[in-house]
Amino acid sequence: MIAKPPIVRVNRLFKSFSRGSEAINVLTDLTLDVPQGEFLALMGPSGSGKTTLLNLIAGLDQPTQGEIWVGNELISALSESELARWRTRNVGFVFQFYYLLPVLSAYENVELPLLLLPMTAAERREQVDRALDLVGLSNRKSHRPGQLSGGQQQRVGIARALVTDPTLIVADEPTGDLDSKSADEILMMLNVVREQLNKTIIMVTHDPKAANQAQRTLHLEKGKLVRDESMPRPIMQPARV
Questions:
Q1: How far is residue 174's CA from residue 49's CA, in Å, rounded to a whole number?
Q2: Which one, of 39, 37, 36, 68, lies nearest residue 52 by Cα?
Q3: Do the beta carbons of residue 220 and residue 49 sit within 8 Å?
Q4: pLDDT digits (tens, 9 = 90+) for 167-217
Q5: Could you tell me the pTM of the whole model?
Q6: Distance from chain centroid for Cα 238
Q7: Residues 6+ apart with CB under 8 A from 81
Q8: For the domain 38-48+80-229, what is the CATH superfamily, name and number?
Q9: Which of 13, 71, 75, 196 could cross-link 30 (Cys pair, CB 3.0–4.6 Å)?
Q10: CA angle 198-218-194, nearest 5°?
């Protein structure tokens, strides 16, 4: 089988923060590739740097040193305003606590990222309807978050992440606030997205069960990659839920 080319390339990455006169090293000399269409999990203890790495790849932060390429874009060289424009088109975010606006319907929450793009109302409606249909919530689009279960709210979050047709989907503990059944459904949904849309997904998780549904797991400790579990293993069969 021919290996897929990387969509994300991280080269000699360093990230540090200042605490008074002291520099705190969060990531140290980290290099990795993420192929197009891979579902990658990042694991490690608190303070290991996994969320920092996710934020850097998503363009939410900038490295102290090193390169980050997403597709043909060297995002580590972009200014903050350039990164903001790049994120709008290229990154979909899925959060642990959903971050849905309670006064808006599911449809309106999903539509929000599209309001930043030059699109007509008809074009927005088509993309929102398509995203909600993919996550099985077409019949809930007029419901507000308070009228939805936690699992349904996270499906709205996934639809919102998908609606701009992004290059990457980044998920920070997407099952951390869910019961076991709902968590399984969300992981299955992420695999549906990966398989049907060939999306690249990078997920931070503390849960080994969640990580086992990814195709590869990278373990970080003290800002360094210490283990790459890249051997094939069984994952949930994608299915409409």
A1: 18
A2: 68
A3: yes
A4: 999 999 999 999 999 999 999 999 999 999 999 999 999 999 999 999 999
A5: 0.91
A6: 18
A7: none
A8: P-loop containing nucleotide triphosphate hydrolases (3.40.50.300)
A9: 13
A10: 15
